[in-house]
């Protein structure tokens, strides 16, 4: 393929922009990762060093010294996995139902759903509802209240509307029921949107801590983000609380190392998971862009 001079210039500019954007994303990640192994004094006085003599795992050792971090990690996996499963199932079923042309009252249902995107009962009524349902200090208090996402339903509905009706009509001619059409034809074609919704739901729940702070009083049920938040607050130096200057400096040193180590621990599962979802993510983000 012969490229004109303007095409080559445009491709060169695009490549340069991609390199710049990639560096803007990768450099902070690299800085945080290396800083989690680097002594804070070295980081402040010499900057980011690659000398192994200045490396230390005190931050990770302090972070994992207590079993609460592992318990919080397990709780976060449980909450994020359960939340993702419920959210994806509800979104797929609701989106497929609302994509059917013969559904009576479809517009009214969509208006009802969309209104809930902008108006809700608020924090106190939601807390009272969760309490009255007996979900306080349970896994369900984290999974169920926010499991239905109208935005996810709209994305799924848009994706299903793009599937040709001829496929469903041909299956009906062959004697397939609506359930078999959904199970054997629609679901296999819906992998991109399923994985995109799963990725969004998992990341959102993995990074969440406010609901757990409100609904979970039992520390044994706290997710990883809330455990890390507690660790950082407990290791934060408050002026006037510590009289010994040496103790204050030591606590500040440990606190800085824990800060970077906790960021790495909290981000690592998402960084590992994303490459496996990337090909589906690229397809799913184009939902509705082409007809």
TrEMBL record:
Transmembrane segments: 12-34, 77-98, 110-128, 140-160, 181-203, 257-277
GO cellular component: plasma membrane
Residues covered by the ABC transmembrane type-1 domain: 73-281
UniProt record, GO biological process: transmembrane transport
Keywords: Cell membrane, Membrane, Transmembrane, Transmembrane helix, Transport
A Pfam family annotated for this UniProt entry: BPD_transp_1
Record's keyword annotation contains Acetylation: no
InterPro entries assigned: MetI-like, MetI-like_sf
Highest taxon of source: Bacteria
Membrane topology: Multi-pass membrane protein
Localization (cell): Cell membrane
Family designation: Belongs to the binding-protein-dependent transport system permease family.
Protein name: Sugar ABC transporter permease
């Amino acid at each position: 393929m012969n490229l004109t001079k303007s095409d080559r210039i445009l491709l060169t500019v695009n490549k340069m922009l991609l390199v710049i954007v990639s560096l803007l994303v990768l450099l902070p990640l690299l800085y945080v990762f290396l800083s989690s192994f680097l002594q804070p004094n070295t980081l402040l006085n010499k900057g980011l060093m690659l000398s192994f003599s200045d490396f230390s795992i005190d931050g990770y050792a302090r972070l994992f010294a207590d079993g609460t971090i592992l318990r919080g990690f397990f709780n976060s996996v449980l909450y994020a996995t359960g939340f993702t499963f419920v959210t994806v199932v509800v979104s797929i079923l609701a989106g497929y139902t609302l994509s059917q042309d013969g559904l009576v009252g479809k517009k009214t249902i969509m208006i009802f759903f969309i209104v809930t995107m902008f108006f809700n009962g608020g924090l106190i009524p939601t807390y009272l509802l969760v309490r009255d349902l007996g979900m306080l200090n349970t896994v369900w208090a984290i999974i169920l209240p926010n499991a239905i996402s109208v935005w996810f339903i709209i994305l799924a509905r848009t994706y299903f509307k793009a599937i040709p009706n001829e496929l469903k009509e041909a299956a009906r001619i062959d004697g397939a029921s609506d359930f078999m059409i959904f199970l054997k034809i629609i679901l296999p074609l819906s992998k991109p949107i399923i994985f995109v919704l799963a990725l969004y739901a998992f990341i959102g729940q993995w990074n969440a801590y406010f609901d757990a702070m409100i609904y979970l009083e039992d520390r044994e049920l706290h997710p990883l983000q809330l455990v890390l938040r507690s660790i950082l607050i407990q290791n934060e130096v408050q002026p006037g609380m510590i009289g010994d200057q040496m103790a204050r400096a030591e606590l500040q040193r440990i606190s800085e190392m824990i800060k970077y180590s906790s960021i790495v621990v909290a981000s690592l599962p998402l960084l590992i998971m994303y490459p496996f979802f990337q090909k589906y993510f690229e397809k799913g983000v184009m939902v509705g862009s082409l007809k």
